[in-house]
Amino acid sequence: MLNAGGLLLVSYLFEGIHVAGVGWAFIAALFLGVMNALIRPVVLVLTLPINILTLGLFTLVVNGLMLWLTGSLLKGFVVEGFWPAVGGALVMSLISLAVNSLIGDQGRVEIIEMRRGSGGVWRER
């Protein structure tokens, strides 16, 4: 659900990415998740030497290719080029990073309450 929202946000930020509606955003997010689970690991292993040479930055290109491939296979989700796909993949990665930082080890959103104790030191309540 959050990835679908991320795809909608990416479609508003980049002119080269279009989503036909909220339903298509959910379908595209599901399809992108399946592609990231099945195809992306194989591509990452095949591109490991260039990924090592670029210190992992080539992973962004692979993520962009997965987004571009998803756009080429779905009718209601269109990615019009390589660079919009890479930009969209970067934004999706940042959204995923933010969402994953909010989710704890048990798979639930955790809120940590902090209070300032004696001496101005912050402590978890």
Describe the strand arrangement of the main beta sheet, using strand numbers.
1-2
The share of residues in helices is: 55-70%
Tell me the distance between the termini. 31 Å
Main β-sheet, in a few words? 2 strands, antiparallel
Structural class: mainly alpha
Strand content: 5-15%
Structural features:
4 strands, two-stranded antiparallel ribbon, 6 helices, mainly alpha, 125 residues, 10% strand, single chain, two-stranded antiparallel sheet, globular
Short description:
This protein is mostly helical. The protein is 63% helix and 10% strand.
Describe the structure.
- This protein has one domain (2-124).
- Helices cover 63% and strands 10% of the residues.
- The longest helix has 21 residues, at 82-102.
- By secondary structure, the chain is mainly α.
- It has helices at residues 2-13, 22-38, 40-46, 48-53, 58-73, 82-102, and strands spanning 17-19, 77-79, 114-116, 122-124.
- Helix 5 (58-73) packs across helix 6 (82-102).
- A two-stranded antiparallel sheet has the order 1-2. Strands 3-4 form a two-stranded antiparallel sheet.
